[in-house]
Specification:
The protein is mainly α. It has one domain. It is built from five helices and no strands. The protein is flat, with a radius of gyration of 15 Å. The two termini are 12 Å apart. The mean pLDDT is 89.
Length: 112
């Protein structure tokens, strides 16, 4: 079990993990403060679990987009790109509990 955690935690670049944890933390805080006012029974455990799994779910997304799109560069409207980025981060954060096990399994079996 110790080997599993060491393999999974050290397989991603530290800069990638820090960046994704910052984005995940921002989304978790926004959800936490919104839920305190509107949905008081939202479990902080779910937010913490999604926060911890978010970088691995984003890794799955980045890997799939890299596989499908390759090294293409898209020129688009900046406002549209920001809106798409926020939407993508929120959706992946919400479903990270389901997506992240795929990324964790891929990283474990690739780097073991």
């Amino acid at each position: 079990m110790k080997h599993f955690f060491r393999t999974v935690l050290t397989s991603l670049q530290p800069s990638y993990l820090v960046r994704q944890y910052v984005f995940g933390g921002i989304v978790a805080l926004v959800f936490y403060f919104i839920s305190r006012q509107s949905v008081p029974d939202l479990s902080p455990f779910v937010l913490i679990l999604n926060f911890l799994l978010y970088p691995y779910a984003m890794f799955v997304y980045d890997s799939l987009i890299g596989l499908l799109m390759g090294e293409n560069i898209w020129f688009t409207n900046g406002i549209l790109a920001i809106i798409w980025g926020i939407f993508k981060v929120v959706i992946i954060f919400i479903f990270s509990i389901f997506i992240a096990p795929l990324g964790i399994a891929y990283l474990y079996f690739t780097y073991r």
